[in-house]
UniProtKB/TrEMBL annotation, chain A:
<dbReference type="GO" id="GO:0015847">
    <property type="term" value="P:putrescine transport"/>
</dbReference>
<dbReference type="InterPro" id="IPR017871">
    <property type="entry name" value="ABC_transporter-like_CS"/>
</dbReference>
<dbReference type="InterPro" id="IPR013611">
    <property type="entry name" value="Transp-assoc_OB_typ2"/>
</dbReference>
<dbReference type="GO" id="GO:0043190">
    <property type="term" value="C:ATP-binding cassette (ABC) transporter complex"/>
</dbReference>
<dbReference type="InterPro" id="IPR003439">
    <property type="entry name" value="ABC_transporter-like_ATP-bd"/>
</dbReference>
<dbReference type="InterPro" id="IPR027417">
    <property type="entry name" value="P-loop_NTPase"/>
</dbReference>
<keyword id="KW-0067">ATP-binding</keyword>
UniProtKB/TrEMBL annotation, chain B:
<feature type="transmembrane region" description="Helical">
    <location>
        <begin position="173"/>
        <end position="205"/>
    </location>
</feature>
<dbReference type="InterPro" id="IPR051789">
    <property type="entry name" value="Bact_Polyamine_Transport"/>
</dbReference>
<feature type="transmembrane region" description="Helical">
    <location>
        <begin position="225"/>
        <end position="246"/>
    </location>
</feature>
<dbReference type="GO" id="GO:0055085">
    <property type="term" value="P:transmembrane transport"/>
</dbReference>
<feature type="transmembrane region" description="Helical">
    <location>
        <begin position="129"/>
        <end position="152"/>
    </location>
</feature>
<comment type="similarity">
    <text>Belongs to the binding-protein-dependent transport system permease family. CysTW subfamily.</text>
</comment>
<keyword id="KW-0812">Transmembrane</keyword>
TrEMBL record, chain C:
<keyword id="KW-0812">Transmembrane</keyword>
<protein>
    <submittedName>
        <fullName>ABC spermidine/putrescine transporter, inner membrane subunit</fullName>
    </submittedName>
</protein>
<keyword id="KW-1003">Cell membrane</keyword>
<dbReference type="Pfam" id="PF00528">
    <property type="entry name" value="BPD_transp_1"/>
</dbReference>
<feature type="transmembrane region" description="Helical">
    <location>
        <begin position="202"/>
        <end position="224"/>
    </location>
</feature>
<dbReference type="GO" id="GO:0055085">
    <property type="term" value="P:transmembrane transport"/>
</dbReference>
<keyword id="KW-0813">Transport</keyword>
Length: 361, 266, 292
């Protein structure tokens, strides 16, 4: 895949507030890219900088090889789906979708056909004459998509497009957005604070904190090999344990509080092998409580159940183990024959050193 | 329930003077007091025959139309800036522009009188009144237009720019149609304020008096009072008509922006 | 990093836009007010202005009983009007905000504002008709047999001025209070009831304090402009109900003594401003309201 958007050394200040702190980023042709982060991390500012609604204080931005410095928003090959959808309330659905064609030299009938096709693409065929005001949230979202895609942009920018929808609708639109992106082959850049949404939809994700990119990877790497504690904490659940470490060639010798000694390959320290003291992360689903008759190939520590949260398909346990302050978070599938343990019950916890990640502090 | 009774009594208090107007306007007697004498439309007829009144009405309309347009333009600038980026001192600047809302009108009147007559040594004319009326109408326009602009989703204009419109194109095609009801309502309100304003016109009018100044002159002659009542009746009817139109447009503006109604003017 | 302390394009546009009405207000409000201040330190003999600096106007305005009396009376009338208007208006605002269904509110607000927009002069004059010796009120009361003699204390004195002004400024008082009441989260009142307060203690401990910003705004927006009212005292005030605006007009238009008129206008404004600021300060201090 070829590179489509390149940002280098992009800074943005609002007065004294440093919103973007040196963003270097390359986004490829045709990928579904997500900017993920907590509110205030600069992800929307970055998106609006690409769209041309914000001027970077310094640094450069090129789209398709063209420097965007002097290119105003309305001349950029980008189109945006706004968080509020920004559907023009005084225009009909068709007028909304065809808004961007006003300066197009095509014949009226051709434009009308293009509008019809765009509406069909988002599943709103026949809605053209409706008042934009009379649409539901999901329908507005589709109109916003059709309106942006009709101009065949090089990049479609989506600013938290699903946050206003209810859970069911959101999941349905996630699938539709992925289908749409595959169909049109346009690069999508999605801004979201919902890690699940980002993991489900994206080819690659940039996790942002306080104006910086914390990690840029595909969803699986991001989940399994987070480079730092804050990335690990932001994406999914993670147990953090203190450890002392000693590098030994291509491997690292660890002494993890509560779990004991082990050795892992250096690849399990994606952020680089720290010296001396470190934090080790382990996901709840890679830990297991051993029920009667079950055995584990890996290592086992003994603990006591501190809290039980029953979720139907899953049960979440907090288990205290000696040598570690916070209880371990463990998620267990409720398979046939497995009881739900009670608070205070003894629990044998199985773990595997392959699931450990060494995190930069 | 007693609160509702009080509210109704209060409305009676508010409307008492206005309700009396038509009563005396059609009363066949020169004394404005009870008991009533009988029905007549003579006073309305006399209005049509008074040339001085026609001049006054003409002057007032001229002043009111121009003041309304100027004040609405200034109001548009301020209200639009109000929705845009903040800068140090913005609140102070806004506060100063809104100051005429609380300043006694006589202060505006005498200060302009001093400047025009004593400092600039110019003659008074309708134009001095237009300038002053624009000043006092602007805060009302800003209040109305602020409402219209605040109802707008700021990403609406950005969406238009994103779809290839220029900044001006986005304003013309998206923002302007959406705030048009606010503009109409602002024009009507400032027109009404200017048409009714007395004290500034009283201090600043040149050779042709405005309508309120003319009415003020009539109030000194008891035999002219029924004519004033007839004129007042027409004015009140006209005001109510204009305000109803203004309110209609304000609500339509809300409906267009897809919002629920939250209250009246101001 | 060039823009770190610079201004963005949007700020520049915003400044450019607001500077239009701002310059207008400077030219037509700030400069004329400055001229008034200058004039108040000058003297005028018929049509010639003596521009040497003097405090004579202020000395005259503050020592001659006729002026001091007028200023004090104007302040007293304004204060009475303010109290009467706000006290009468509060229940209405409360009624519209708390007792009416949402779709009826704007109709009531519309009804309340209509009289305000109809000819001020004629409205004031009609109060003269209502309150007069042979007026509507007296003839109806006599007709009903409630009084034998027409009431005379209701026209051509300060009472008449207060009634008429309370009428004229009613919407100015109702609207800010209404807005403040509308902003009150209704669940706060339920919480208060839930915590054991009665309906009336809830009103005094929750509703009223939260409505104070509106009340303060109402007080200011009524008190400040009424001091400059000219028409009402002139039409219904009689000799004992005249206010400072009438004297300012006399100085400017009749006696050709603009400097003394200017000094009187400034003194009135300063008094009003000081009282208003004092009121806001007291409110902040004792009620903890952050009124504005």
């Amino acid at each position: 895949m070829t590179d489509l958007i390149t940002l280098s050394g992009v800074h943005k200040y609002y007065g004294d507030y440093h919103a973007l702190r040196g963003i270097d980023l390359t986004i490829r042709q045709g990928e579904f890219f997500s900017l993920l982060g907590p509110s205030g991390c600069g992800k929307t500012t970055l998106l609006r900088t690409i769209a041309g609604f914000e001027d970077a204080s310094s640094g450069s931005l090129t789209i398709d090889g063209r420097d965007m410095k002097r290119v105003e928003a309305h001349h950029r090959p980008t189109n945006m789906v706004f968080q509020s959808y920004a559907i023009f309330p005084h225009l009909s659905v068709a007028e909304n979708v065809g808004f961007g064609l006003r300066r197009d030299k095509r014949a009226r009938a051709d434009k009308a056909r293009a509008v019809g096709e765009a509406l069909e693409m988002v599943g709103l065929a026949g809605y053209g004459n409706r008042r934009a005001n009379a649409l539901s949230g999901g329908q507005r979202q589709r109109v916003a998509l059709a309106r942006a895609l009709i101009l065949e942009p090089k990049v479609l920018l989506l600013d938290e497009p699903l946050s206003a929808l209810d859970k069911k609708m959101r999941e349905q639109m996630q699938v539709e957005l992925m289908r749409l992106q595959r169909e049109v082959g346009i690069t999508f850049i999605l801004v979201t604070h919902d890690q699940e949404e980002a993991l489900v939809m994206s080819d690659r994700i940039a996790v942002m904190f306080e104006g910086e990119i914390g990690q840029l990877d595909d969803p699986e790497t991001l989940y399994r090999r987070p480079v730092s504690r804050r990335v690990a904490a932001f994406i999914g659940m993670m147990n953090f344990l203190d450890a002392t470490i000693a590098p030994a060639g291509a491997r690292v010798a660890l002494d993890v509080a509560g779990l004991g000694r082990c050795e892992v390959p250096a690849s399990q320290a994606p952020g680089g092998v720290p010296a001396g003291a470190a934090t080790v992360g382990i996901r709840p689903e890679t830990l297991a409580i051993l029920f009667e008759g079950e055995s584990a190939p890996g290592r086992v520590v003994d603990g006591v159940v501190d809290e039980v949260v029953y979720y139907g398909d899953m049960t979440y346990y907090d288990v205290r183990i000696p040598g570690h302050d916070a209880p371990l978070n463990i998620s267990m599938k409720n398979l046939i024959g497995r009881p739900v343990l009670e608070v205070g019950a003894p629990a044998r916890v199985a773990w595997d050193e392959r699931a450990l990640v060494l995190l930069a502090r | 329930m007693s609160l509702r009774l009080y509210a109704i009594a209060y409305l009676v208090f508010l409307y008492a003077p206005i309700l009396l107007l038509p009563v005396f306007a059609f009363n066949d007697g020169t004394i404005i007091a009870f008991p009533l004498q009988g029905f007549t439309t003579e006073w309305f007829g006399e209005l049509g025959r008074t040339a001085a009144l026609h001049d006054a009405v003409q002057a007032s309309l001229f002043i009111a139309v121009l003041s309304a347009i100027l004040a609405t333009c200034l109001g548009l600038c301020a209200a639009r800036a109000g929705t845009m980026a903040s800068f140090p001192g913005k609140r102070g600047v806004m506060g100063f522009i809104m100051l005429p809302l609380v300043l006694p009108e006589i202060i505006v009147a005498v200060s302009l009188l001093v400047v025009v007559v004593q400092v600039l040594d110019l003659g008074l004319s309708n134009w001095t009144i237009i300038l002053a009326h624009t000043l006092i109408c602007t805060p009302f326009c800003i209040a109305i237009l602020n409402g219209a602009f605040a109802n707008l989703d700021p990403s609406m204009e950005e969406a238009a720019i994103d779809l290839g419109e220029t900044r001006w194109g986005a304003f013309r095609l998206i923002t302007l149609p959406l705030v048009t009801p606010g503009i109409v309502s602002s024009l009507l309100i400032s027109f009404t304020i200017s048409l009714d304003e007395f004290i500034i016109a009283f201090f600043l009018s040149g050779n042709t008096p405005t309508m309120p100044v003319y009415i003020w002159g009539l109030l000194r002659f008891p035999e002219k009072l029924p004519v004033v009542m007839a004129l007042g009746t027409i004015l009140v009817a006209l005001s109510i008509l204009l305000l109803t139109i203004a309110e209609f447009y304000r609500r339509r503006g809300l409906a267009r922006a897809g919002l629920r109604d939250t209250g009246g003017f101001l | 990093m060039a823009q770190r302390f610079g201004v963005t394009r949007e700020v520049r546009r915003s400044v450019a836009l607001i500077s239009v009405p701002f310059l207008y207000a400077i030219l037509l409000l700030a400069l004329p007010l400055g001229a008034i201040v200058l004039f108040s330190f000058w003297t005028q003999d018929f049509l010639t202005i003596d521009t040497s600096f003097t405090l004579a106007n202020y000395r005259e305005a503050l020592t001659q009983p006729i002026y001091t009396q007028l200023i004090l009376r104007s302040l007293a009338i304004s204060a009475t009007v303010t109290v009467a208007t706000v006290v009468l208006a509060f229940p209405i605002a409360y009624f519209v905000s708390f007792h009416l269904p949402p779709h009826r509110k704007s109709l009531w607000l519309f009804l309340i504002t209509i009289p305000f927009w109809t000819s001020y002069l004629i409205r004031v004059f009609l109060w003269k008709v209502i309150l007069g010796y042979n007026g509507v009120l007296n003839t109806s009361l006599t007709g009903l047999g409630l009084i034998d003699e027409p009431l005379t204390f209701i026209l051509y004195n300060a009472n008449a001025v207060v009634i008429t002004l309370a009428h004229a400024f009613a919407p100015f008082a109702i609207l800010p209070i209404f807005v403040a009441l509308e902003k009150i989260d209704r669940s706060l009142l339920e919480a208060s009831r839930d915590l054991g307060e009665s309906r009336s203690t809830t009103f005094f401990r929750v509703t009223l304090p939260l409505a104070m910003p509106g009340v303060v705004a109402a007080v200011l927006i009524v008190f400040i402009p009424t001091i400059g009212d000219y028409v009402t005292p002139r039409l219904v005030g009689g000799p004992d109900g005249l206010m400072i605006a009438n004297m300012i007009q006399t100085q400017f238009l009749r006696l050709n003594n603009a400097p003394l008129g200017a000094a009187l206008a400034l003194i009135a404004m300063v008094c009003v401003t000081v009282i208003a600021l004092g009121f806001v300060w007291l409110n902040r201090r004792w009620l903890g309201g952050d009124g504005k």
